[in-house]
Amino acid sequence: MLAPKRQKYRKQFRGSWRRIAVKGEKLNFGNVGLKAITPGWIKDREIEATRVVLARATRKSGKYWIRIFPDKPFTKKPPEVTMGSGKGEVSHFVASVTPGRVLFEIDGLDEAQVKNVFRVVSSKLSVRTKIIHKNI
After folding, report:
1. CATH homologous superfamily of domain 32-77+87-133?
2. Which residues, by range, are in coiled-coil regions (predicted)?
């Protein structure tokens, strides 16, 4: 799974989403992208599942870009442990996503293929998304 190589601190606060995305809201690489319309945390497993779908779809022709990275540690306490005694251990990493953030970009496929691929990809994510196109 995706995880940062090193971190300054092992555990972080959860944070909040009070705004729309101020960076990463435009297409930089591909012609079509998938944009988040609700805030949320996207797990490293979700990103890996979407990477597999995108790699299979763009195998022969096309290219894809993943624009998010899970750099936020998510902690969890073990089962049947009482409350208290500090914060739990890091169980996985998540990418914090605000509305308007471009998650994935794709290029080199026709419109029907892109729509089908992004439909499958969006079903694997925990945030609502929409397809955006580059204005040429």
Report:
1. Ribosomal protein L16/L10 (3.90.1170.10)
2. none
130 pLDDT above the threshold of 80: yes
Domain ranges of the chain: 32-77+87-133
pLDDT band, very low/low/confident/very high, at 136 (cuts 50, 70, 90) = low
- Is the CB of residue 95 less than 8 Å from the CB of residue 69? yes
Cβ pair 98, 20 in contact under 8 A? yes
Q: How far is the C-alpha of 133 from the C-alpha of 26, rounded, in Å? A: 10
Q: Which two tokens stand for residue 65?
A: 């870009």
- Global pTM exceeds 0.85: yes
For residues 105 and 64, give the distance between their C-alpha atoms in angstroms, rounded to a whole number: 6
